[in-house]
Write a structure and sequence with these properties.
The structure holds 2 protein chains of 2 kinds.
Chain A (H helix, E strand, L loop, with lengths): L3 H12 L3 H7 L1 H7 L4 E7 L4 E7 L2 E5 L7 E5 L2 H9 L13 H19 L3 H4 L2 H25 L1 H8 L4 E7 L3 E8 L2 E4 L9 E5 L2 H8 L5 H6 L3 E5 L1 H18 L1
Helix pairs in contact in A: 1-4, 1-7, 2-3, 3-5, 7-8, 7-9, 7-11, 8-11
Chain B lengths: L7 H13 L25 E5 L2 E4 L4 E4 L14 H13 L9 H12 L5 E5 L2 H16 L3 E5 L20 H4 L2 E4 L4 H10 L4 E6 L17 H11 L3 E5 L12 H4 L6 E4 L10 E5 L4 H5 L11 H16 L2 H22 L4 E4 L6 E4 L6 H12 L2 E2 L14 H21 L1
Parallel strand pairs in B: 3-13, 5-6, 5-7, 7-8, 8-9
Antiparallel strand pairs in B: 1-2, 2-3, 4-10, 9-10, 11-12
The chains are: A alpha+beta, B alpha/beta.
């Protein structure tokens, strides 16, 4: 019920795509990249491509990887997914002199990311860590929704029913992400907007976590007022169907 | 200004329900699927119902325009229907041998529904839409089914979509989806799938959610009928929702064509649990040979209720009565909207009207207005068509329009 190509898109855009946000919220990540000026491209045959760029103590994700300092080519989505799983060691096609970045910066960054995304129960008892971990998941899930809606066969069916507009996902009043639907293609907007056509708001960070971990169902939470939906609810309904598939890919 | 309702007791009951019932209230009567937005504006449970009214647990009275999502056609607790049901209950209901009420009911439907040569009974709309599709497949020995986008034919896996929880690709792999009113695409689909399409299934007009309801284009149904006949495909009309609110002889009759199979439920027995598949003679043998039944499908009380309901609907010329009431309400609501400068669209048949404030494409304004109506005692819902019942009086319509007017004013002031 899942496919390697969609997983590769999720791995690149949602998992590795979370690194820029990680570098905003985690001091160790900030420290790792503070003096780096490097771009790391991923080119997957029959799958996604993109780049993680680092400069001036910031990180961002770019769609193009041709001009990157380092390029990691993968023969297939499966090989790329293997790198994410730790079963495949990538060999750069460009940037051999920058291998130090891969080993000393990029790998530790992914380790920090894993510590948040695969957090153990003990670590989650710390409320600050809990919040950071949940917010990273929030970013990851929003991006995974876009990838699944665009690439996965079943996700595409859901996206085909989403009318054009912007769906606002929010945790409380503070944390917001926006998914744009245009011609049934989804993308997470880089910036906030007040022009959204529908919304799904989780009451607080705890409820968001429970939803992300599958302990609570959004439909059930609507009746309790813990999840609020409004506007073009058909958009939310279909995003919620894609959300169900996120867990399938990230399990 | 009216006092707005609160729902403390509904919430208490819902908290209990959440512990023992998945999602508290599942399905179309639930707050999520019912699009209760904001949820605080809506009651969750009823304590009683009478005529066109329903009372919630907190004692709030509502003029109910959802009519239990259709079954309430004569008014809740209609004395004639209830008397017939009570009489039969005293004799027997769910018994080893079926009652001849079943035969009477089938005879009545065959006499009433223009395209019916026989009737088969079950409990819910989904039971008979599923039987219709199985019948078409059994008769034609074909697999594919054509749907019109925006459809709703129940909850069995074949009626759902590939992305619905619990549905697998194989459940829907023979479904073909065509835009409503698009004859060119339908023609193309028939050509590309020659000899493979078992059935075309459709509601009599497009009463999908989140969108204005759309009537068939002139000549649409006649052309669909022709294509089905030419291709040996069974034409199924799902009249579960609209049945008897457009035409007592069936909605295919209203639109001037004949279905091969037609499905009824909702208005069939004024709330007693029975559904019916009616069909043409040439399909009777096929259905005779099918294994399809249920524990309560031959219960006699709903048959007695159905007989009384149909006879009363005939006496009262029900579709005309409901359409007239709907027209009155429609013009009142549109005028109320105009007073506050809103553009209220009322689409679909007046007896099954669909509402949308067109000033805001996000529908948030619409949801605000619906919420203000509900809090004042008019039970509308956000994105589903509504239903008129025979017990609705001119005074109820006037009260509804008053409340709608006040709700529009409240929303206008807020913006």
């Amino acid at each position: 019920m899942t496919d390697a190509k969609t997983l590769a898109y999720i791995n690149l855009h949602a998992i590795l795509g979370s690194i820029p946000y990680l570098c905003e919220i985690d001091e160790r990540a900030k420290e790792l990249i503070k003096n780096e000026k490097v771009s790391l491209g991923f080119r997957v045959k029959g799958g996604p491509s993109g780049a993680l760029c680092f400069a001036n103590g910031k990180a961002w994700f770019a769609a193009e990887c041709d001009s990157c300092n380092i390029i990691l080519p993968f023969a297939s989505p499966e090989k790329f997914n293997g790198m994410i799983d730790g079963t495949v060691t990538p060999i750069p096609s460009k940037g051999f002199l920058k291998l130090g970045f891969l080993l000393k910066k990029f790998m530790p960054l992914t380790d920090i990311l894993s510590s948040y995304l695969r957090a153990d129960e003990k670590a989650l008892e710390d409320p600050v860590f809990f919040e950071k971990s949940t917010l990273l998941m929030f970013h990851l899930i929003a991006n995974a929704i876009a990838q699944i809606g665009n690439v996965d066969k079943v996700g595409q069916a859901s996206a085909s029913y989403i009318v054009d507009g912007v769906i606002k996902l929010a945790i409380g009043d503070e944390h917001k992400l926006f998914i744009e639907a245009k011609d049934h293609t989804l993308r997470v907007l880089p910036d906030a907007t007040e022009k959204f056509s529908s919304f799904m708001r989780f009451e607080d960070i705890k409820l968001a976590r429970d939803l992300f971990d599958g302990r609570v169902n959004a439909v059930a939470a609507v009746g309790e007022g813990k999840v609020r939906i409004g506007g073009m609810i058909s958009q939310v309904d279909n995003v919620n169907r894609i959300l169900d598939r996120v867990a399938l890919y990230l399990a | 200004m009216r006092k707005t309702y609160t729902y403390d007791k509904s919430r208490e009951a819902f908290a209990r329900a959440m512990k023992v019932i998945p999602s508290g209230i599942y399905g179309h009567l639930g707050p999520a699927e019912g699009c209760y937005t904001p949820v605080e504006a809506f009651p969750f449970y009823s304590s009683k119902a009478q005529g066109t009214y329903v009372w919630d647990l907190d004692g709030n009275r509502f003029i109910d325009y959802m009519c239990a999502y259709g079954p309430n056609v004569l008014g809740y607790n209609d004395p004639d229907v209830d008397a017939a049901a009570a009489e039969q209950r005293a004799l027997g209901d769910c018994t080893t041998l079926p009652s001849t009420k079943m035969v009477e009911f089938a005879e009545l439907l065959v006499d009433t529904v223009a395209s019916a040569d026989w009737a088969f009974f079950a409990k819910n709309g989904n039971d008979v839409t599923t039987l219709a599709v199985m019948t078409a497949r059994a008769y034609t020995h074909r697999k594919k089914i054509v749907f019109f986008k925006g459809y709703y034919h129940g909850v069995s896996p074949w009626t759902q979509k590939i992305d619905y929880a619990g549905v697998i690709e194989e459940d829907v792999m023979h479904n073909i989806y065509v835009p409503w009113n698009d004859l060119d695409t339908l023609r193309k689909v028939f050509k590309e799938n020659e000899g493979q399409i078992a059935a075309v299934i459709s509601q009599p007009y497009m009463h999908g959610n989140f969108m204005d309801n759309v009537m068939p284009a002139p000549g649409f149904w006649q052309e669909v009928r022709k294509m089905c006949t030419e291709n040996g495909t069974v034409l199924v009309v799902d009249d579960v929702r609209a049945g008897f609110r457009l035409d007592i002889a069936g909605s295919d009759h209203y639109f001037g064509f004949e279905a091969d199979l037609i499905c009824f439920c909702k208005a069939l027995a004024n709330g007693y649990n029975v559904s019916a598949l009616c069909g043409k003679e040439f399909l009777k043998n096929t259905v005779s040979g099918m294994s399809y039944t249920g524990s309560y499908w031959l219960s006699a009380v709903p048959f007695a209720a159905g007989i009384a309901c149909i006879n009363k609907m005939k006496r009262l010329d029900m579709p005309r009565t409901l359409i007239e009431k709907g027209e009155k309400l429609k013009s009142g609501l549109i005028a109320a909207a105009e007073q506050s400068g809103f553009d209220l669209r009322v689409t679909g048949a007046p007896s099954l009207f669909y509402l949308r404030i067109a000033d805001d494409p996000t529908l948030m304004l619409h949801q605000e207005w619906i919420a203000e109506c509900v809090k004042r005692g008019v039970f509308f819902t956000n994105h589903h068509n509504h239903f008129i019942n025979a017990a609705l009086t001119d005074a109820d319509i006037a009260e509804t329009v008053d409340i709608a007017e006040e709700a529009f004013a409240v929303v206008k002031k807020r913006h």
